[in-house]
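Worked example 2:
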Amino acid sequence: MDVRLDEIPRAGPKEGHAVGMPGRNFSTQQRWIVVAAILLAAALVQIPLVLNADLACLLTSGEKILDGRKLGIDLFELNPPLSVYMYMPATMLARATGIAPEFIVIILLVIEIGGALVLIDRAAAAAGVDARERTIAVWSLAVLFAILPGAVFGQREHIAVVALTPFVAVTALRWRVLDPGRIAVLAGIGAGLAMSIKPFFALVTGLPIIAGVVRQRSLKPLFTPEAWTAAAVVVGYGALVVAVFPTYLTIYAPMVAEAYLPIRQEFVRLLPVPIVALGASLVFLRLLAPENFKMESDATPWLAAAIGGAASFILQGKSWPYMAFALCMFAVAAPLLQARAKALRPPVVLGGLATIVLVGLYLSSPAPGFPPLRERVQALVKHPRLLTITDHVGLGHPLVRQIGGTWVGSSCAAQLLAAGAILRQSSEQLTDGERTKLVGIVDFERRHLLADVRSGHPDVILVDTYLLSSFPFDWLAWANSDPELQTELSRYREVEDIGRVRVFVDRAIP
């Protein structure tokens, strides 16, 4: 027996006539009730899970800015300024309402997802796409936006992919020679913001356009309203960064380029995820549309976006699952959105569901972590002022928020730049100029650690014993190699080792 996705009937003269019975249309109201149910379920699932290390770090940085810190002067973040400021509305609302900011992030992201789905649906309606296809598209994308991310929910990559998907959807409509109307400009704004969050997303938005250029043998796809709008947003953001955050560009960004960006996995270790994701996508496209498995397929723009996500994942070179979200999301969307009018055998349906589950599990796979520290630290000091000496953001975050402590560091990423510099110094043949730059970066990190200890007066300092979670490394010896820092750290006594972490407490604390 075949399972047919086209049992959702075609739209009648009025979309609202349907009552959801076999052989009839789903009404507009029923369409959005299902979407609301999906988003509500995702929100409830995320309440105990959403506070991952990166989100906790950026929320804490936002709170520091509200308290008077200046980004790029006495507060540092590896990523462009929008990475911090995009969470500022949640932080401000949290202070106004008393609700935990991570819960407000969930609410705001659900609103963003709903807005993106409405935008995609309205663009399709303006293009004349029938209600049946729009319903399946909205339901499918709701699941991919809200359920598939798992532990990636709320991270910058998740927010950015939701923002840029309407742009890919509009490009897919133009691929079918359909006009999405003026609403395409809003899709361009979303894509521009996504590229401002992370420039690598230019590959995700750009490859579908390039596919259109190749297909039409014309540059017209480069000059659509949404493309111009996206470019304008990126240029405007760049000008804003130059005007408002010059120190990020002149001081911090060069150090990031020198010490952080070169930290990457070997190329062959990065390939399996893109090969598996794109390969599975192509297999399902072949099963769904064997007669249309070619360049002109309606799935091509979505597949091009997935290829852009794969390129972004490889270029970043870290192999962290959240960096593969764009790849995974669009690789699943490409065949899923083509299943609207196909007869599928049960093995294909089960295989597709199993693939989606496996993708979700991969995205939620835990990063190299730390031993449980919450109860141990709380037993030493209630609501401590906390600092870490490490290159891993996950040592201090979200721990400091979970224990109601105060983060006294000038960077949530701690000594990550120093770690990159140390790794390069030990593993590469460097010119004198490169070595001088790396020594300067290590000195920069030590100076700021010294300032954090002096001005922050931490009650507890957690010291890691690994470099980049891969190599044993004595971070305490690294810190003590500076005489002034050694003097400051002598005020702390080591109370215990917990796995890879050494715990130090102010000697003044009994």
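The beta strands are 3-4, 343-344, 385-389, 406-407, 460-464, 466-467, 471-472, 492-498, 501-506. Confidence is low (pLDDT under 50) at residues 1-24.
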